[in-house]
Specification:
Layout (H helix, E strand, L loop, with lengths): L5 E8 L8 E7 L4 E6 L4 E2 L10 E4 L2 H5 L4 E5 L5 H4 L2 H8 L3 E3 L1 H12 L9 E3 L5 E4 L2 E8 L6 E8 L2 E5 L17 H10 L3 E5 L12 H14 L4 E4 L5 H13 L3 E5 L1 H12 L23 E5 L9 H6 L13 E4 L8 H13 L3 E3 L14 H11 L3 E5 L3 H13 L4 E2 L6 E6 L4 E5 L4 E5 L2 E4 L3 H12 L1 E8 L10 E5 L11 H15 L2 H4 L2 H20 L5 E7 L1
Parallel strand pairs: 3-6, 6-7, 7-8, 12-13, 13-19, 14-16, 14-17, 15-16, 17-18, 19-20, 25-27
Antiparallel strand pairs: 1-2, 1-21, 2-3, 4-5, 5-23, 9-10, 10-11, 11-12, 21-22, 23-24, 25-26
Helix pairs in contact: 4-8, 5-11, 6-7, 14-16
Pfam families: Lactamase_B, RMMBL, RNase_J_b_CASP, RNase_J_C
Keywords: Cytoplasm, Exonuclease, Hydrolase, Metal-binding, Nuclease, RNA-binding, Zinc
Organism: Bradyrhizobium centrolobii
Length: 556
């Protein structure tokens, strides 16, 4: 009798980290599998460790190799960490994409903002709908989150049903969109869930995430009490929060001015898809200066301290249309993503120095997470009764805590994996059965580089220790034709004794050349290598760092 097909799972991003989500499911045997991809997101570069890198994306080399067996890509929702890599990576895959209406419309608007975007067709599936994608039947189950139309995916196969939760929380009053569909999730639990692949972001936090409706009440109170101008910054994709801010402005008889392209784009898509029906029209930044101080509210991008976003420019007093003064208020209706603390802190300090009152979630309930806390995780387990739970979407601590909670809740099998692990889900005993290539791609300007790329590695070294450039002109007889040229970038001007580094390096270059036998002086490569070593050694001796050194040898 033929063995039944195996169902396998492999995270290629988003496990052991928050961001850059990409999961794949395979059905078949070791020699031939049909694959289904879920989400294709980005992480954001860190200037300290990755200077010049804008975005980080998952390595999709495995899917490129399996392209003919890749049945499709399904989107759980339209946050950048779940769909931000599609424009760059889809041309390598060319597979069908499936999403619900809001995600598809936001993706289309994102493509329209690019210079030369590839034409990427998206098949729109209704919320709560089902679609056959190769041997997978995928069901879109509505869940509450901080963007409209977030969905858990029930992936039905002949080997069993997997629930891939995506990002979710339990919010009975989400303001916009449908609450998490408890009834359908309980039904799935009765039908049988082979595996729950679950969001771990808030697994370290007790209790439940508060509701969007509670935040809306607080924002109304704060805007009503404000005397001068008010600016509110939040994640541009949080349409429920945008509506809450608009409602607060209406109660306080203020006009809403939208500031920032990302916010503009989401507002336009939300209006087109009906999520801002009945909400007053917003004004453009040009009218801001003409409105009375107590009759205006600026809704701004830049809650994460992005240097080119609206709020950073306002805080630096270099925005062409929007200014704030003593007595005005700024509400940060967001949480600071780990890694952005310095940038956000700098904006807050600049605002405070201008006499602006800054309100954050430390003072008032002006933000709630879109992810489940521990009691909500227990509810999901109780409703769906999975045979196996795999924590994803979190760093090591989050995954560990989610796994511990699942074991305590009585889940029969709990498995913690890493990006690249190939996990057999069923039939039979689950476990890690192999590995697939997993890594990172870096978006460097308009170019995609892999993690080992020379540009990325060298730029990191240059950011730490500068760079030395040496140009040498030699005669065919192996003599110096002129003085060497030395240019030091990012290296201190003088050592501790006050001696100029330019002089120290120049002397090291000359003495190295003069100390070489004539045949090595006539060999440009050998000469360059000797000089390179000598320059790095002398700088290290006086500074304690070894910068990259580029030596150019010209024979005249």
């Amino acid at each position: 009798m033929a063995r039944p097909d195996e169902l396998v799972f492999a995270p290629l991003g988003g496990v052991g980290e928050i961001g850059m989500n990409l999961s794949i499911y395979g059905l078949g045997n070791r020699h031939q599998r049909a694959w289904l991809a879920i989400d294709l997101g980005v992480s954001f570069g860190d200037e300290e460790h990755l200077p010049g890198i804008d975005l980080i994306m998952p390595d999709i080399s495995f899917l490129e190799k399996e392209r003919k067996n890749l049945m499709g890509l399904v989107l759980t929702h339209a946050h950048e960490d779940h769909f931000g890599a599609i424009i760059d990576l889809w041309p390598k895959l060319q597979c069908p994409i499936y999403a619900t209406q809001f995600s598809a419309a936001l993706f289309e608007a994102k493509c329209a903002a690019e210079r030369n975007p590839p034409k990427i067709p998206v098949t729109v599936i209704p919320s709560g709908g089902r679609v056959d994608i190769g041997p997978f039947n995928v069901e879109f189950i509505p869940v509450a989150h901080s963007i409209p139309e977030s969905h858990a995916l029930a992936i039905h196969t002949e080997a069993g049903t997997v629930l891939h939760t995506g990002d979710w929380k339990i919010d009975p009053t989400p303001i916009i969109g449908r609450p998490t569909d408890e009834r359908r999730l309980r039904q799935l639990g009765e039908e049988g869930v082979l595996a729950l692949i679950g969001d771990s972001t808030n697994a370290v936090r007790d209790g439940r995430s508060p509701s969007e409706a509670e935040v809306a009440k607080t924002i109304i109170e704060l805007v009503k009490a404000a005397k001068g101008r008010v600016a509110v910054t939040t994640f541009a994709s949080n349409v429920a929060r945008i509506k809450a801010v608009a409602d607060a402005a209406k109660v306080a008889d203020r006009e809403v001015v939208v500031v920032g392209r990302a916010m503009d784009r989401v507002v336009q898509v939300a209006r087109e898809t009906g999520y801002l029906d009945g909400v007053q029209n917003f004004r453009s930044p040009e009218v801001y200066g003409h409105l009375p101080h107590d009759r205006v509210l600026a809704l701004c991008t830049g809650s994460q301290g992005e240097p080119r976003a609206a709020l950073a420019r306002i805080a630096n007093d270099d925005h062409p249309e929007i200014t704030l003064n003593r007595g005005d208020s700024v509400i940060f209706s967001s949480r600071t993503i780990p890694g952005n603390e310095k940038a956000v802190g700098s904006i807050i300090n600049n605002l405070v120095l201008q006499g602006v009152e800054v309100i954050t979630d430390r003072d008032h309930l002006v933000h709630v997470s879109g992810h489940p806390r521990r009691d909500e995780l227990r509810d999901m387990i109780a409703w769906t009764k999975p045979q196996l739970l795999i924590p994803v979407h979190g760093e090591a601590l989050h995954l560990h805590e989610h796994a511990k909670l699942a074991r305590a809740a009585g889940v029969p099998r709990v498995l913690v994996c890493r990006n690249g692990d190939l996990v057999k889900l069923g039939p039979g005993d689950p476990g890690i059965v192999g590995e697939v290539p997993a890594g990172r791609l870096y978006k460097d300007g308009a170019i995609l580089e892999d993690a080992k790329s020379r540009a990325v590695v060298e730029r990191r070294r240059m950011a730490f220790s500068g760079c030395a450039f040496v140009a040498i002109a030699m005669t065919e007889q192996g003599e110096l034709a002129d003085d060497p040229e030395v240019d030091l970038v990012g290296i201190p001007e003088k050592n501790k004794a006050g001696e100029p580094f330019d002089d120290l390096v120049f002397d090291a270059v000359v003495s190295t050349i003069e100390g070489l036998p004539r045949p090595r002086r006539r060999d440009p490569d050998a000469l360059a290598e000797s000089v390179r070593r000598a320059v790095r050694a002398v700088i290290n001796e006086h500074w304690g760092k070894k910068p990259p050194c580029l030596v150019h040898v010209l024979t005249v």
